Amino acid sequence: MSAKPTLEPSNDNFHNADIGEIYLETKDMVGFPNLPHDPKMLSVELFNNSDLPATKIKMKYSVVFYKTIPTFDSEGTAVSHSYIEYKEIKSVLNFDYLASHDSYLVKIMRVSGEFSRIDIVVKTLKSKERTFIRQSLRIYRYEHPAFESLQDSYDYRLLLGVSPNLHGEEHREE
Predict the structure, then answer these.
(1) CA 165 vs CA 77, 78, 158: distances in Å
(2) What average pLDDT does this structure show over 102-131?
(3) What is the mean pLDDT of the chain?
(4) Starting at the edge strand that comes first in sequence, how are the strands of the sheet with 40-47 ordered?
(5) How high is the pLDDT of residue 49?
(6) Contact criterion met (CB below 8 Å) for 46 and 107
(7) I need a surface site. Which of 3, 27, 39, 113 has the fewest CB within 10 A?
(8) Is the pLDDT score of 170 beyond 80?
(9) DSSP string, 97-110
């Protein structure tokens, strides 16, 4: 069995109750982007590559959210950034059966620019018959697509979650 992450365009209104509160908690907080992009669904597809069915499947996974920490020069211009882990949301997925050479899609969350970086980590993946992943394995790292196409320091500040009107010396974490 294998786990493959996907990030596809989506207008799905899927809501993960475990993750839902983090959207509200980080809205307008320094360190989280204020630069939306088209909505995408972050999912994990489990594949049973075996010639035999898998039963009593259990996947423990976590979604790790990061906060950006900007670095400013003497004139208050954001010149670089680093990340710190903000919060880890742990989940367990259980299902009874996956046929041979079949797959099962697990929707994790919808992203549309609220976060700079997210990791999907599978802690364990096993079935009644076999253990596939025994120790934590990061299978995907989402990074805000604007990092690839920044136009100017204004966009960079929005991406870092810093008001474009703040100067470095006035910056403080919440």
Answers:
(1) 11, 12, 10
(2) 94
(3) 88
(4) 2-9, 40-47, 103-111
(5) 92
(6) no
(7) 27
(8) no
(9) EE-TT-EEEEEEEE
Residue type, 122: V
| Whether the predicted pLDDT of 169 surpasses 50 | no
What is d(CA 118, CA 98) in angstroms, rounded to the nearest whole number? Answer: 28
Q: Report the distance separating Cα 168 and Cα 156, nearest Å.
A: 13
* Local structure of 84: helix, strand or coil: strand
Q: Where are the alpha helices (DSSP H) in 8-166?
A: 17-26, 153-160
Query: What CA dihedral angle connects 112, 115, 121 and 126, to 10 degrees?
Result: -30
**Alpha-carbon span 158 to 94, nearest angstrom:** 39
Residues 6+ apart with CB under 8 A from 79: 71, 72, 73
3-state secondary structure of 129: coil
Residue 26, number of CB atoms within 10 A of its CB: 20
Single-letter code of the amino acid located at 53: P
The answer to whether 60 and 138 have CB atoms below 8 angstroms apart is no
Q: How far apart are CA 105 and CA 3, in angstroms?
A: 10
Terminal Cα-to-Cα distance of the chain (whole angstroms): 42
Token digits of residue 161: 């979650």
Question: CA dist 28 to 135, 146, 172, Å?
Answer: 35, 18, 13
User: What does pTM read for this prediction?
Assistant: 0.86
Over residues 79-103, mean pLDDT: 95
